[in-house]
Amino acid sequence: TWGGLWNVPAPGAEELGLSYEEYHCYWTGIAEFGGGLLLAGSGVGLFDLPVQVPAFLMFLLVLAVTPANVYMFTHDAQMSDLPRIPYPWGHAGRGFAQCVLLAFFWTLATT
Q1: Rounded CA gap, 67 and 61, in Å?
Q2: Whose C-alpha in 10, 28, 62, 68 is 20 to 30 A from the C-alpha of 94?
Q3: Residues in Cβ contact with 94 at an 8 Å cutoff, skipping those fewer than 6 apart
Q4: CB atoms within 10 A of CB 89
Q5: Diameter over CA atoms, the chain
Q6: Per residue in 20-45, pLDDT tens?
């Protein structure tokens, strides 16, 4: 949740035996992997799809997870299975990397 302000639905999480956090972590990871494959495959001609389409989809995905990353920065939220992100500079570095990704995907999508 976004500090209790917004609870994004997690349809089917209970049936899959996943927590709310695991559900959203998994679907975004699968979308990132699939989007990356689609982007790379379009770039080298494996798919008859303009690169702009998967680049824009990746832009939307990064944009969609931005509120969660802002929350992590403002509340020093940590993922339990990963090494601790140093506060505040580790979170700031992630924010900078996210801005770079947004700019990169936007550039690919609009050129």
Answers
A1: 11
A2: 10
A3: 69, 72, 73, 85
A4: 9
A5: 44
A6: 888 988 999 999 999 999 999 999 99
Positions in the chain short of pLDDT 70: 1-6
Rg from Cα positions in the chain = 16
In this prediction, residue 54 carries a pLDDT of 97
How many Å from the N-terminal Cα to the C-terminal Cα in the chain? Answer: 35
55: how many CB neighbours lie within 10 A of its CB?
23
How far apart (Å, rounded) are the C-alpha atoms in residues 109 and 63?
A: 14
**Dist. CA 79–CA 96, nearest whole Å:** 19
